[in-house]
């Protein structure tokens, strides 16, 4: 009688005993892995990742530590933010995925369904390994379920092995997925090919990049969206330019992005935090439409329209109100610019303060510019490469600026390509990776971050950028658990 | 008139004796037992203290009453015997409530302390019963960590932090587990604290952190009905606070300096600073100290009426209580109504039944988000913010640049205090019935059933409040929620318990006394919560959830805990001198998996009343002496999980995703489990001595104790490579708390009203806490949990000064990622590798106090009484880095006066680094932010006057007492300590916390 009395169990959650029984369980678990993509250590910080670069300033330094990573003030013992969240959350994807793969075998499902789900889970695991490789270099590769003891005995694999793992995961995804997925937002063949292309691009493996672009183009599904401004509008989500994005919705389940609220200018309806703030360095990157020099007395006139589609600058209006007098800057944010791209102008935010706007991880412009870069770096066909860049500069209805001459040297073409990526992709969180793979940190830094009134706010990497800054340190805490984990050089 | 006694001879060898029993004040004492030992002859005094008894000539009569020194009178030929009983402060004859029963204090073999709620304690403006123990009891540390009206219960630690889990003692009210927040302090008769394992072993599983037994008042059989009315009114105000810069011009200069120090340019133009220097209009050039605006003097009042009495068959106690307390923080208050009814009836010689009903209704109001108010204040609250505009609206930042915009965004904390309402309604109801069946005079069966219901209903809504500059520019506070929302949450808990004991008590051959108990108890707790919320009502002011048109949210869950226990105790006393006790309890808990559910906890203790030995009777110095020893095991399972062994596939919104624009529920295992976890066990050995000197005028109790907690259920830190899942609960920790405690009491009783009486009690506890087993190389963290260290010892870099030059800094930190500059803190580079790393961290001081003490002097003379409670701690540290102590908060905020002495090239000999804002280097956990928190505090002082009985009789009263009381008056603490009242939680930085109020009150107590 006593034992019966003491036997009470929760009625609000699933226990492992009653899980992995049917397809519904499989989908719950799979969605659970997708959900990690929303974490700020993975893609959840959205444009804020650009605050690591010279082009944006993060004054809210407690949100993700992009500021500290980007100004050289982190150490191996720095905790929090991206320094350990990328590690933790990528490994969450990996562990969830390994568990999923192990359990899927025992669920009674038709083989084609299993194949689809396996494709999805390998794609997600591939993303995790790719992000880890980009952030930390070679990391321990885990492909099975490990217990608390086993994980403290792992050693780091090499960078090549880690990338290879990502590639092989993507390969299974490519094999098992369809050009159009059974639900919008799930893995498609294009997404898997695209992320594999990015994995090669980040390793500077340009021949393979070209192969991947060919396969993507063979799908015949992707093109530039006619409007650059429209590309980031709620109405145009999932358009032909999008290969892979993080899907957000409005509503009370908190399934929206949080970065939009942070990035919205302070003082608008939903009380944003103006974080991150674009800096003068990104403003300077935008050319004049006609290729002339910027008029210092009328500096926002005649500029590449992408400037105003991306950045809120003095004299611009946001939701019908003038910046920065009616839409004020945030305390502490004296930079004088706000972000417009990816903040969802005009979309009311509900509490919890999240935005339904999807975050594009990979779009076709990136595929095009990757191809152009590969053509330039392999010195195969510079005119073709410039032609591609000119597509970006002229093809959309709302972006038509002067075309580049096609007879450039490899060196000059490289400059143009890199410049174009900065302008095209600012506010999308991928510029940091470019700086690292191009190894241009030493040329860029130190960088002064100036206030709107010309005053100095901070100097990024005041003591100069070193090679070690191309990788994050392995979190000290992880090493304290596992002596086999070697720290990255210089940290 | 008592003098007209005519002896009536019932039997001719018996004489009738009569008389009156009074106390030192001449007040009659009803209910005094008047008996002839060994004969069964006896009676009790009536309401007027009178008695009549037929006794043999030459017999000895004993007059005894709880709390008074018994008197023995040998009858010769007198027929009238009037007796004055003196109050017994030695408390040796005291009956102490122990687990499932009572025991004479002299027969205790464990470490037990008790506090009687006399007038001194009762008349203090105690808003929560837990506060009453402060400074009173050795081994018990009371720390009131919040002054928020309605939730100002103090943290109670019995002999320190016994586990890495919940270290709260078990609170039992009349034998039934309860929360100390659910008691009207006025109803308390006494509180007993069981400190060692032997005393608390009968409670087995949940007694590892000590037991506080609270006995509520009740009537007495054959007692005249009496009414007690107590009332006080008081005023509360903010005591110690952060000393913040309130001069705007100075403040702006410091902010500019901070920016300059970090290579930035000035934020406030000189012209603005000069305007503030010269301007006098408080609406245009304010110099605001928001402590003066956000805090206020607030009234507190409490009224209590109780009636008690009894016939020969039935006794009762009824009380009604009303407390109304406004918070010292604007727009916060709490009121409480309480009703208590105790009834007990002797139905038959062999059957007593009774019941208790207790209801409390408490409602507390505070702004929509009171935490945000402190946050905005500490991280804003600029002196150049006008609290209000001239036309009475909330003010805004008055530092305005040339283009007419405010230089920084508005952060007026008053806006947060005016925002909406969070109303908490707490309804508590308890029903208890019991029956005692006497099978024989030595065998009794007791049964007790209790059902408790507690509901916490919280309604919250916000509204839209903005600030305005003097010129009418609207300024919204930082991150101000501009969506109107309303929510209602209810957490309802039901607790039912049934226990039954069989009690045996018999003396064999006059010298062998055996008492024993065997019992069974079952308990069940069910907690249900529900939450609903909507946003966007059609109109401001529609604050019901139904009014919302969007943002639908609903939550609801249930947790359940069941326990089943068997327990027993045997006491054996030989000649009242040699005392032995044995306890055994077996507990089963639904928290553990089937095979690990049951824990068995034994305890043994023994005492020797040396003072009763013949050889001790020949001297006069030592009037009493007892030594005692105990050993016992106790269990604990009080952890933050109801099913820690169950592997759960978590299904939450956080684990969900979206496809095709629709919500797609997801799940994942986010917590690891160890299915074999079971009870954590603590083992306590206690050696104690008690002795009285000079007729017990000096009474000393001292204990040495060693407590080891094994198999502590902890979640060891696990590497993040597991994906940030939470660690399994495992039985792996071990901790020791060794120390000693003593209590010395010196008292002199007043023989009568005109005599001086005084009493001074001093108690002190010394505890060394150490975590003796935890994960090897547990990760560095500020509040460190690691083998060989005190629990939550502070851990970080050691600040060893300030760099005087850039060169000194760059040489010292040559290999560091960040190169500090002149004026920045210099941390010790322990391994001399030119960089700051985890190898350079070290222990910076314990946060658990080594010493806690209390001093309670009191004196009474001619009806006046003065009593004081002084308490404090020593040998403890706190970490103080927070938005107050850091200049300019996180992105602009308050600056404390200490930063006036910040390092500059012209002020190099200082211990304060250069001023800066959002400074990662300075924010490293370091000794710079560690303060010694040792303090001595005047917790309470009371002066009262009891009117003479001549006057009160004329007024038709039994007693009339008036008093003035002051609480939380002030404390002595290290000069370096910045913060509110040092009586605080030592495990946080002391920022977001409702400060304790200073309370001055006047009250009256009337007995009818």
SSE blueprint:
The complex is a heterodimer of chains A (491) and B (1008).
Chain A: H1 2-6, E1 14-15, H2 23-36, E2 56-57, H3 66-71, H4 81-104, H5 111-136, H6 159-176, H7 189-202, H8 206-219, H9 228-231, E3 242-246, H10 259-263, E4 277-278, H11 280-285, H12 306-310, E5 311-312, E6 317-318, E7 321-322, E8 338-339, E9 359-363, H13 364-377, H14 382-394, H15 410-425, H16 431-438, H17 441-444, E10 447-450, E11 456-460, H18 476-481
Antiparallel strand pairs in A: 2-4, 3-9, 5-8, 6-7, 10-11
Helix pairs in contact in A: 2-4, 2-5, 4-5, 5-6, 5-7, 6-7, 7-8, 8-13, 13-14, 13-15, 14-15
Chain B: E1 14-22, E2 33-36, E3 41-44, E4 50-56, E5 60-64, E6 71-74, E7 83-84, E8 95-98, E9 101-104, E10 112-116, H1 119-122, E11 140-143, E12 155-158, E13 170-173, E14 176-177, E15 188-194, H2 197-200, E16 211-216, E17 226-238, H3 248-261, H4 270-278, H5 290-294, E18 298-310, E19 314-326, E20 333-348, E21 351-366, H6 370-378, E22 394-395, H7 413-417, E23 421-440, E24 443-461, E25 467-468, E26 474-475, E27 485-508, E28 512-535, E29 550-574, E30 578-589, E31 598-608, H8 614-617, E32 622-636, E33 648-649, E34 657-659, E35 662-664, E36 680-693, E37 698-715, E38 729-748, E39 757-773, E40 783-784, E41 793-796, E42 799-802, H9 806-812, E43 825-827, E44 842-845, E45 851-861, E46 864-874, E47 877-879, E48 930-932, E49 935-946, H10 949-954, E50 959-973, E51 997-1007
Parallel strand pairs in B: 1-7, 13-16, 22-25
Antiparallel strand pairs in B: 1-4, 2-3, 2-5, 5-6, 8-9, 10-15, 11-12, 13-14, 15-16, 17-18, 17-51, 18-19, 19-20, 20-21, 21-23, 23-24, 24-27, 25-26, 27-28, 28-29, 29-30, 30-31, 31-32, 32-36, 34-35, 36-37, 37-38, 38-39, 39-45, 40-41, 41-44, 42-43, 45-46, 46-49, 47-48, 49-50, 50-51
Overview of the molecule:
The complex is a heterodimer of chains A (491) and B (1008). With 491 residues, chain A is mostly helical. Chain A has a domain at 21-246 and 469-481: Serine Threonine Protein Phosphatase 5, Tetratricopeptide repeat (Alpha Horseshoe). Helix content of chain A is 41%, strand content 7%. Chain A contains 18 helices and eleven strands. In chain A, helix 13 (364-377) runs antiparallel to helix 14 and helix 13 (364-377) packs antiparallel against helix 15 (410-425). Chain A is globular, with a radius of gyration of 23 Å. The N and C termini of chain A lie far apart (61 Å). Chain B is mainly beta and 1008 residues long. Among the domains of chain B are: 14-84, Sandwich (Immunoglobulin-like), CATH 2.60.40; 95-222, TonB-dependent receptor, plug domain (Ferric Hydroxamate Uptake Protein, Chain A, domain 1, Beta Complex), CATH 2.170.130; 799-840, no CATH class. Chain B is 7% helix and 46% strand. Chain B is built from ten helices and 51 strands. Chain B has a 22-stranded antiparallel barrel. In chain B, helix 3 (248-261) packs antiparallel against helix 4. The radius of gyration of chain B is 32 Å and the shape is globular. Classes of the chains: A mainly alpha (491), B mainly beta (1008). Chains A and B meet through helix 1, strand 1, helix 2, helix 4 and strand 11 of A and strand 29, strand 33, strand 34 and strand 35 of B.
């Amino acid at each position: 009688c006593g034992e019966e009395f003491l036997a009470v169990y929760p009625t609000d959650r699933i226990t492992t005993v009653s899980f992995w029984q049917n397809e519904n369980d499989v989908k719950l678990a799979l969605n659970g892995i997708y959900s990690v993509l929303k974490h700020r250590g993975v893609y959840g910080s959205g444009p804020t990742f650009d605050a690591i670069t010279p082009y944006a300033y993060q004054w809210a330094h407690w949100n993700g530590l992009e500021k500290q990573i980007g100004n050289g003030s982190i150490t191996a013992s720095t905790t929090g933010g991206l320094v350990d969240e990328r590690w933790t959350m990528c490994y969450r994807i990996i562990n969830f995925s390994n568990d999923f793969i192990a359990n899927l075998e025992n669920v009674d499902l038709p083989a084609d369904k299993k194949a689809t789900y396996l494709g999805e889970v390998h794609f997600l695991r591939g993303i995790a390994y790719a992000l880890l490789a980009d952030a930390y270099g070679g990391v321990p590769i885990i492909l099975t379920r490990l217990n608390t003891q086993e994980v403290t005995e792992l050693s780091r694999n090499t960078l090549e092995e880690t990338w290879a793992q990502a590639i092989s995961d993507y390969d299974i995804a490519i094999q098992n997925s369809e050009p159009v997925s059974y639900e919008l937002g799930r893995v498609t063949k294009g997404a898997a090919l695209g992320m594999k292309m990015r994995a090669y691009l980040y390793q500077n493996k340009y021949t393979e990049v070209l192969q991947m672009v060919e396969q993507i183009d063979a799908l015949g599904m992707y093109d530039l969206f006619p409007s650059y401004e429209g590309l980031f509008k709620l109405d145009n989500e999932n358009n032909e330019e999008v290969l892979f994005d993080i899907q957000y919705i409005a509503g009370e389940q908190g399934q929206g992005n949080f970065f939009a609220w942070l990035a919205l200018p302070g003082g608008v309806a939903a009380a944003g935090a103006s974080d991150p703030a674009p800096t003068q360095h990104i403003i300077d990157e935008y050319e004049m439409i006609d290729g002339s020099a910027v008029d210092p007395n009328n500096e926002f006139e005649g500029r590449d329209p992408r400037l105003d589609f991306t950045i809120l600058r003095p004299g611009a209006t946001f939701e019908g109100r003038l910046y920065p007098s009616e839409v004020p800057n945030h305390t502490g944010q004296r930079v004088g610019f706000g972000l417009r791209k990816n903040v969802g102008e005009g979309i009311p935010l509900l509490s919890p303060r999240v935005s339904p706007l999807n975050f594009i991880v990979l779009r076709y412009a990136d595929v095009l510019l990757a191809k152009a870069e590969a053509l330039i770096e392999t010195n195969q066909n510079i005119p073709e490469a410039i032609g591609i860049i000119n597509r970006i500069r002229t093809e959309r209805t709302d972006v038509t600026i002067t075309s580049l001459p096609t007879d450039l040297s490899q060196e000059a073409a490289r400059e143009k390509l890199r410049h174009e990526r900065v302008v095209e992709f600012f506010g999308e969180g991928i510029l940091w990776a470019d700086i690292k793979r191009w190894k241009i940190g030493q040329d860029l830094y130190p960088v002064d971050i100036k206030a709107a009134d010309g005053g100095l706010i901070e100097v990024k990497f005041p003591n100069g950028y070193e090679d070690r800054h191309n990788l994050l340190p392995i979190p000290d805490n992880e090493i304290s658990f596992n002596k086999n984990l070697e720290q990255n050089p210089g940290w | 008139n008592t003098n007209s006694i005519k002896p009536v001879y019932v039997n001719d060898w018996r004489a009738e004796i009569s008389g009156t029993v009074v106390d030192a004040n001449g007040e009659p004492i009803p209910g005094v037992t008047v008996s002839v030992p060994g004969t069964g002859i006896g009676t009790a005094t009536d309401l007027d203290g009178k008695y009549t008894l037929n006794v043999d000539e030459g017999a000895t009569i004993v007059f005894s009453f709880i709390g008074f020194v018994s008197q023995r009178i040998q009858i010769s030929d007198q027929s009238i015997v009037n007796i004055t009983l003196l109050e017994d402060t030695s408390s040796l004859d005291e009956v102490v409530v122990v687990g499932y029963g009572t025991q004479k204090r002299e027969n205790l073999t464990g470490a037990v302390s008790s506090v009687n709620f006399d007038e001194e304690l009762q008349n203090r403006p105690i808003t929560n019963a837990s506060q009453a123990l402060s400074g009173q009891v050795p081994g018990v540390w009371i720390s009131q960590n919040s002054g928020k009206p309605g939730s100002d219960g103090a943290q109670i630690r019995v002999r320190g932090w016994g586990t890495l889990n919940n270290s709260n003692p078990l609170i039992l009210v009349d034998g039934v587990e309860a929360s100390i927040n659910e008691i009207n302090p006025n109803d308390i008769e006494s509180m007993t604290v069981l400190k060692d394992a032997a005393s608390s072993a009968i409670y087995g599983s949940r007694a590892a952190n000590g037991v506080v037994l609270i006995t509520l008042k009740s009537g007495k059989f054959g007692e005249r009905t009496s009414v007690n009315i107590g009332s006080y009114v008081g005023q509360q105000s903010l005591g110690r606070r952060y000393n913040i810069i309130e001069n705007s011009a100075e403040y702006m200069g410091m902010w500019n300096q901070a920016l300059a120090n970090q290579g930035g340019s000035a934020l406030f133009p000189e012209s603005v600073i000069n305007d503030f220097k010269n301007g006098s209009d408080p609406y245009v050039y304010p110099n605001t100290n928001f402590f003066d605006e956000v805090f206020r003097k607030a009234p507190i009042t409490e009224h209590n009426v109780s009636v008690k009495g009894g016939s020969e068959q039935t006794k009762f106690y009824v009380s009604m209580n009303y407390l109304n307390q406004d918070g010292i923080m604007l727009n916060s208050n709490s009121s409480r109504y309480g009703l208590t009814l105790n009834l007990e009836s002797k139905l038959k010689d062999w059957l007593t039944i009774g019941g208790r009903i207790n209801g409390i209704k408490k409602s507390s109001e505070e702004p929509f988000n009171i935490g945000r108010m402190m946050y905005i204040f500490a991280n804003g609250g600029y002196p150049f913010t006008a609290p209000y505009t001239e036309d009475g609206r909330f003010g805004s930042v008055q530092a305005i640049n040339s283009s007419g915009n405010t230089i920084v965004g508005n952060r007026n904390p008053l806006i947060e205090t005016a925002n909406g309402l969070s109303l908490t309604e707490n309804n508590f109801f308890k029903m208890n019935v019991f029956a005692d069946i006497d099978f024989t005079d030595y065998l009794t069966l007791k049964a007790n059933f209790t059902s408790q219901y507690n509901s916490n209903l919280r309604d919250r809504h916000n509204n839209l409040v903005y600030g305005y500059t003097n010129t009418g520019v609207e300024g919204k506070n930082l991150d101000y929620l501009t969506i109107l929302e309303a929510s209602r949450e209810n957490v309802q808990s039901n607790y039912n318990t049934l226990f039954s004991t069989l009690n045996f008590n018999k003396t064999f051959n006059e010298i062998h006394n055996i008492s024993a108990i065997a019992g069974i108890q079952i308990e069940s707790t069910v907690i249900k919560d529900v939450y609903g919320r909507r946003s966007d009502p059609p109109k401001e002011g529609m604050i019901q959830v139904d009014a919302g048109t969007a943002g639908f949210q609903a939550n609801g869950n249930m947790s359940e805990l069941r326990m089943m226990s068997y327990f027993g105790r045997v006491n054996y006393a030989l000649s009242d001198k040699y005392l032995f006790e044995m306890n055994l309890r077996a507990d089963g808990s639904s928290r553990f998996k089937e095979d690990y559910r049951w824990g068995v906890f034994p305890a043994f203790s023994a005492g020797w009343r040396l003072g009763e030995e013949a050889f001790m009777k020949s001297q006069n110095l030592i009037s009493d002496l007892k030594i005692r020893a105990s050993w016992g095991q106790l269990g604990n399972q009080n952890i933050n999980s109801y099913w820690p062994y169950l592997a759960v596939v978590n299904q939450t919104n956080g684990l969900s995703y979206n496809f095709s624009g629709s919500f797609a529920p997801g799940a994942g295992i986010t917590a690891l489990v160890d299915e074999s976890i079971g009870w954590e066990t603590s083992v306590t050995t206690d050696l104690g001595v008690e002795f009285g000197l000079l007729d017990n005028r000096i009474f000393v109790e001292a204990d040495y104790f060693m407590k080891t907690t094994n198999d502590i259920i902890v979640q060891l830190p696990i590497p993040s490579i597991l994906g940030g899942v939470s660690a399994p609960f495992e039985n792996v920790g071990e901790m020791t708390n060794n120390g000693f405690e003593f209590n010395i009491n010196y008292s002199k009783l007043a023989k009568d009203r005109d005599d001086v009486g005084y009493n001074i009690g001093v108690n002190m506890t010394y505890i060394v806490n150490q975590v003796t087993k935890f994960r090897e190389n547990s990760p560095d963290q500020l509040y460190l949990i690691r083998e060989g260290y005190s629990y939550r010892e502070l851990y970080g870099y050691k600040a060893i000064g300030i760099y005087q030059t850039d060169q000194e800094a760059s040489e010292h930190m040559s290999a560091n990622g960040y190169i500090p500059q002149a004026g920045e803190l210099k941390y010790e580079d322990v391994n001399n590798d030119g960089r700051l790393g985890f190898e350079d961290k070290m222990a910076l001081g314990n946060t658990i106090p080594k010493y806690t003490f209390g001093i309670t002097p009191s004196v009474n003379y001619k009806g006046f009484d003065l009593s004081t409670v002084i308490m404090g701690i020593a040998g403890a540290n706190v970490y103080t880095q927070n938005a107050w102590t850091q200049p300019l908060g996180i992105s602009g905020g308050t600056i404390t006066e200490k930063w006036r002495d910040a390092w500059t090239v012209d002020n190099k000999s200082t211990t304060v680094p250069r001023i800066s804002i959002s400074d990662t280097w300075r924010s490293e956990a370091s000794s710079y932010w560690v303060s010694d928190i040792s303090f001595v505090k005047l917790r309470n002082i009371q002066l009262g006057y009891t009117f003479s009985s001549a006057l009160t009789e004329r007024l038709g009263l039994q007693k009339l007492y008036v008093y003035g009381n002051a609480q939380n008056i002030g404390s002595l603490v290290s000069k370096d300590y910045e913060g509110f009242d040092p009586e605080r939680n030592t495990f946080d930085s002391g920022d977001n916390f409702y400060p304790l109020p200073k309370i001055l009150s006047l009250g009256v107590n009337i007995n009818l």
